[in-house]
Specification:
single chain; 330 residues; mainly alpha; Penicillin binding protein transpeptidase fold
Length: 330
């Protein structure tokens, strides 16, 4: 009796594999799903192992690059790593005064600043940030710009890991070396060379304050040719560092759209993802005047500082209140 062979064009009776007895058309989707599943678990395992190992190694090694450098619209980027011993103390003071005045005391998160930011954002369209230097370091190293709960959650996890494995001095050293100070300019050494033609070790207090002033929006604001708003920020930071009296404003005013060099703001400072502005007096209260650090005699805020005069800006409100300590350094 003749046996009828199945037709290859038949959808109802697909050909069977001699070894497995499975339809050929059914094997392909299963194979594709298995491949995707292996890729997913492989990527997850890589991420779980890569980040902790990288954080541990970066306690001693300088990062060859960062996630933010790879995402920079300008290539090649300017990036020169220098150890903490080759960074002026004024640069450390300026960044802490500008970005995170509780840096030496918190464990990676400023809960008070987070609560203040939450209340502010409930009643204002201009969002206020509460990121610490530790959080910004974690984000710049491994993540991407922009908001979102997922990214903030990953950032928080890396921040906890970093605070557990690194001393505070190392976190600040890495931040100063990877922060963006201008379009494609990363790190205080590259910024100091680009803007002031000198190494970071020789930065004056005024120059350090100018670099710190542009951190919230380094692609719009200029440390070399500061606009009116950046000049106000410079004076405010100098006051926080101990050079003159603190100004009465609880934080620098938002930039005025249309100002040369100060138009708009694309950083996280006002969108809920930037640094906290704490350690300053509440609105309407005159803050106390800073006193110089022991062994240091800083000039008045309006007097010339080594490296050049303080840029002119709006008058500073002098405070006759009792003296207080300047931004602490370890």
């Amino acid at each position: 009796m003749d046996r009828k062979e199945p037709s290859l064009d038949s959808d109802a009776n697909p050909p069977l594999r001699p070894s497995r007895g499975e339809p050929v058309v059914a094997a392909r989707p299963r194979r594709r799903k298995g491949r995707l599943r292996r890729w997913f678990w492989g990527l997850l395992l890589f991420a779980v192992l890569f980040v902790p190992v990288s954080v541990l190694l970066l306690r001693w090694l300088p990062p060859p690059t960062t996630a933010f450098m790879l995402q920079s619209p300008k290539h090649p980027v300017q990036y020169d790593w220098v150890p903490a011993s080759q960074i002026a103390e004024a640069a450390r003071k300026a960044v802490v005064a500008s970005e995170d005045q509780k840096f030496w005391d918190h464990n990676g998160f400023d809960l008070e600043a987070i609560e203040k930011a939450r209340k502010h954002n409930q009643r204002s369209k201009k969002r206020r940030g509460a990121s610490t230097i530790s959080q910004q370091t974690a984000k710049n190293l491994f993540l991407w710009s922009g908001g979102g709960y997922f990214r903030k959650g990953v950032e928080a996890g890396i921040t906890v890991l970093m605070e557990a494995l690194w001393p505070k001095q190392r976190i600040l050293e890495v931040y100063l070396n990877i922060a963006e100070f201008g379009p494609g300019i990363y790190g205080v050494e590259a910024a100091s060379q680009a803007y002031f033609n000198k190494p970071a070790a020789k930065l004056s207090a005024n120059e350090a304050a100018r670099l710190a002033a542009v951190l919230p929006s380094p692609r719009r604001w200029s440390a070399k040719v500061p606009g009116p708003y950046v000049q106000k920020r410079v004076r405010w930071i100098m006051g926080q560092m101990g050079y003159g009296a603190r100004v009465a404003e609880p934080e620098p005013p938002p930039p005025v759209p249309g100002e040369p060099g100060d138009a708009g703001d694309e950083s996280g400072f006002f969108d809920g993802d930037g640094p906290a502005a704490d350690g300053v007096a509440p609105a309407g209260e005159a803050p106390a005047a800073h006193q110089p650090v022991e062994g240091e005699t800083p000039p008045a805020l309006d007097a010339p500082v080594e490296g050049g005069p303080v840029p002119e800006a709006a008058p500073v409100v002098e405070a006759p209140a009792a003296p207080s300590e300047p931004v602490p350094t370890p």
